[in-house]
Specification:
The chain is an alpha/beta fold. It has five helices and twelve strands. The strands form three sheets. It has a seven-stranded mixed sheet with strand order 2-1-3-4-12-11-10. Strands 5-6-9 form a three-stranded mixed sheet. A two-stranded antiparallel ribbon has the order 7-8. A hairpin with a 2-residue loop joins β11 and β12. It has a single domain, classed as Rossmann fold (3-Layer(aba) Sandwich), CATH 3.40.50. Bound molecules: glutamine. This is Pyridoxal 5'-phosphate synthase subunit PdxT. InterPro entries: Class_I_gatase-like, PdxT/SNO, PdxT/SNO_CS. Its EC number is 4.3.3.6, 3.5.1.2. One of its GO terms (cellular component) is glutaminase complex.
């Protein structure tokens, strides 16, 4: 099974390492044609405005919407979650608009720019290690979205069918269970 990581900007190598640790093959995706060879894709953390701009320049917007239409799983982490969302607080336009969630960027404020914690994630366990860096929050979810995890009563992970989103960076820990969960989603849809 091949899992791609969108490599336009952001934390790519760490995701590849985790995908392989969790037992699948990782593919660095820089061109739209590569979407044909992979079974699922991770949109990494980084800077969502930059990733969005590069996605438009390199024709990834329509290509990823088509990828999703085919039922192939997509996992957005941090900035990648913002890229997946249907709407972004305070912004007129969003990016892929695939997942029925509204997100707020940099939602933890300046004092809490980054921190690490253990999360209870539905379908995994109650002690999944997570790193938050200038993280977004999911402030609204549609009826068909399943909330997988909260931190202090705010939503930090969710799933809508073949779409998975996390506010944090699961690739910056040595806990590969979130990647294993995504790989299971990909296996189910194959
Ligand atoms: N703050 C970034 C944004 O709004 C996301 C941060 C991250 O991916 N670590 O795009």
């Amino acid at each position: 099974m091949k899992i791609g990581v969108l490599a336009l900007q952001g934390a790519v190598a760490e995701h590849i390492k985790m995908i392989e640790k969790a037992g699948a093959q990782g593919v660095v995706v820089k061109k739209v044609e590569q979407l044909q060879e992979i079974d699922g894709i991770i949109i990494p953390g980084g800077e969502s405005t930059t990733i969005g701009k590069l996605m438009r320049t390199y024709h990834f917007v329509d290509a990823l919407r088509e990828f999703s239409r085919q039922g192939k799983p997509i996992f957005g982490t941090c900035a990648g979650l913002i890229v997946l969302a249907k709407s972004i607080v305070g912004q007129e336009e969003a990016h892929l608009e695939l997942m029925d969630i509204e997100v707020e960027r940099n939602a933890f404020g300046r004092q809490r720019e980054s921190f690490e914690t253990d999360l209870d994630i539905k379908g995994i366990d109650n002690n999944v290690r997570a790193v938050f860096i200038r993280a977004p929050l999911i402030v609204k979810v549609g009826d068909n979205v399943d909330v997988l995890s909260t931190y202090r009563d705010q939503i930090v992970a969710a799933r809508q069918g073949h779409l998975l989103a996390a506010s944090f960076h699961p690739e910056l820990t040595d806990d590969e269970r979130m990647h294993a969960y995504f790989i299971d989603m990909v296996r189910e849809t194959r």
